[in-house]
Amino acid sequence: MPPSIVEKYEQxxxxxxxxxxxxxxxxxxxxxxxxxxxxxxxxxxxxxxPSSILGRVVxxxxxxxxxxxxxxxxxxxxxxxxxPASPYAFNxxxxxxxxxxxxxxxxxxxxxxxxxxxxxxxxxGWVEQARRELGVGPASTPKHRATEDDxxxxxxxxxxxxxxxxxxxxxxxxxxxxxxxxxxxxxxxxGTEPSRPPPPVLxxxxxxxxxxxxxxxxxxxxxxxxxxxxxxxxxxxxxxLRPDTARSVLYMIPGETTRDVxxxxxxxxxxxxxxxxxxxxxAEADRLAQQFAEELRKKLLAExxxxxxASRLRRNRRLLGxxxxxxxxxxxxxxxxxxxxxxxxxxAATAAVRAxxxxxxxxxxxxxxxxxxxxxxxxxxxxPEISSLSAQVAAVLASEHGDEDAxxxxxxxxxxxxxxxxxxxxEYLLAASPAEAKEAEASLLDARPSSAPLVQALAGRVLxxxxxxxxxxxxxxxxxxxNPPLLRALAxxxxxxxxxxxxxxxxxxxxxxxxxxxxxxxxxxGAAEARLTLGRDLDVAARELTAMEADPGSAPPHDLxxxxxxxxxxxxxxxxxxxxxxxxxxxASEALGETAPLAAALAEAHLAARAWERAEGAAARAVELExxxxxxxxxxxxxxIGRGKPADALAAxxxxxxxxxxxxxxxxxxxxxxxxxxxxxxxxTGREGRMxxxxxxxxxxxxxxxGRAARARALLEKLAAARTPPPLVHAALxxxxxATGDLDGAERAYLAESEREPRSPEGPAGLGRVRLxxxxxxxxxxxxxxxxxxxxADLEARRTLGQARxxxxxxxxxxxxxxxxxxxxxxxxxxxxLLSAAWLAEGEPAEARRAAERAVASAPRDARALLAAxxxxxxxxxxxxxx
Length: 883
Fold this sequence. Notes:
Structural class: mainly alpha
CATH superfamily of one domain: Tetratricopeptide repeat domain
Strand content: under 5%
CATH architecture of one domain: Alpha Horseshoe
Number of strands: 2
């Protein structure tokens, strides 16, 4: 049976995931009724072709079919934003909405399409059809262009009936070779360039705050849908920027070009100041004034009567000279005023460009420079854009860097109507109460897509915090696509991807911001977290963090300081420097105050260093500060197990549950000699017959403890052969092989553990045990010493090292190790018997007898203790006691 068209398209796309055939496949899937799959195909395809207009329209159609009108609207708006001067996207969107009988939603797009192609009879027919269905007047060639003041809402999707196209702050330019034609239909082949009418002034109207007349649709009387923020999806992996501090994308000056940071870039910004003309200097003003005065003097003289009397002539000449001087002075003053006004406009325009760049760069240094430029501009200009930027910069400096002068200015400008979007930002960032914060959030969410990038970024953050991830992502992408791109928006998008488990995409987003500014704090910290999650390039993360900390102008804002210290400490731990991490966290506690996250991170650093006592203290402090946090209790249990206090570890986990909790309880019970109870805890971690790999390793060790080593070996060999073996699996396999008598296999397993986990003592400790069991104590010394060095609190390794030294003829060093064991565990019977043997080897039978009697007192029926006591008594000449 020949393959269907869908199967053919799928085969092509499988062979080349970057193929544009994804659009045809998605169209076929929508027509076949598989809209959900079509949406996923579009999502993946747009990762490679973010400016595909038809791809976004098909995605919107699929979302309409799956009952997601908000998502569909986002894709339609993104489609028309790719090229708002072409009717192509408007045709497609209008036709798609019309096909779903969404006439109110289709009409703005169709009217805009008719504006761009007034001779197209098909589009005119669509407009008339939509108008008939809505009961409005007949269509004519549109003359009115919707502005941002059109607040009339539609019913179904909650969008404005005003022209809804690209944002007024940006005119996105396609980033791929895909160019839409001037009329409807399929997308043209790359490389073609259709003829287009001059780009009109458009506005993309977003839902505004409901006013007295906004509660219903003017044409139907039906209550309007709640305002929906206009999100749209950017390409999942934006092109990373290369660091270029000499010619940054953000610090451009008039006439310079810029680069895309994420998706389509902003090619035009109607609200941005035009490049300022060069301001004439004072010498030029003098020259103009003198020239004007001379011309005026000549004109007045030319108009003088030809033959007046001599006395009148002299008098008139004096009057004319005085008048000329007066007029010359007035002309000079007028020229100075004109030149001064032109100079003020030039200063304001330049300051606006530079300040926008500083605000977009989003560092302490760039914000302070922007604040300085804006202060100078405010002295010579009352431009509303200067007021808006001043309010935004001051609000960020105040809320994120504690600048009190900036706080006073932001508070003042927040009450100034001319501040516009800056007032919204200031009200939100400086909100002093929950009620004020709620009102400010509503104001941000009511902002149109043409609002300032910082407004969009903050609105996106609000939506993400509310759990509206897609809507929040859309707002953040608007800010990330601004010109210049707002770096905090890129970093927030990275945080969103990292939270969703996509560390690679998060790293790409952070990298885009770091390409514009290598020490941007939010992006440096986010990139370090992503690299830590991926377990790679940790040295790069450490260098970036060090560079950020060394730059006073890149000091992290208040809300980022704790996070920066935590990730830097965890990077140190992952790089094998737990002492450096502990020192960093101690300094952070002094600077930021003691918090539960800092105490928990300190506990993690001490656990990595196997400083169990310190880890226990830090974890206990974290539990005290946040008693309900289960992760802190897990840290406390791990520290107590490391200290050899498994019963106390069980007490720390009392009253909490979960897979990690059960695993730690199983380890504690296994250390207490309760393998059956440990097994029950591990079985409870299973779901549908499967358990976590870490739990499976300990499950196998319970089999070893219960005498079923062969069964444990089969499970552990399977786990060890996995692509990513779980921790300690080779050490556990070595234990199982030891128990079955396969010392060669056990040695190989312990060597594998040492190679895979070089900072774990389990591998060298097991290797020393195997060599000692083979009767080669001298070969056992080196790995056992390494194990003790890695974990001085490992009493089993110390005891085994004491035995190896004793068997190697080193009774003095053996006693030193055994004394260390007995300091922590005074009644340890194996250590006491070995200590007795060491005293005998040194010719001290009395000391040997004393150590052996302590062992017998601790375990009266232990054969090892009785034998050691008999040997010591015999060496002391007490045959009866020995017998």
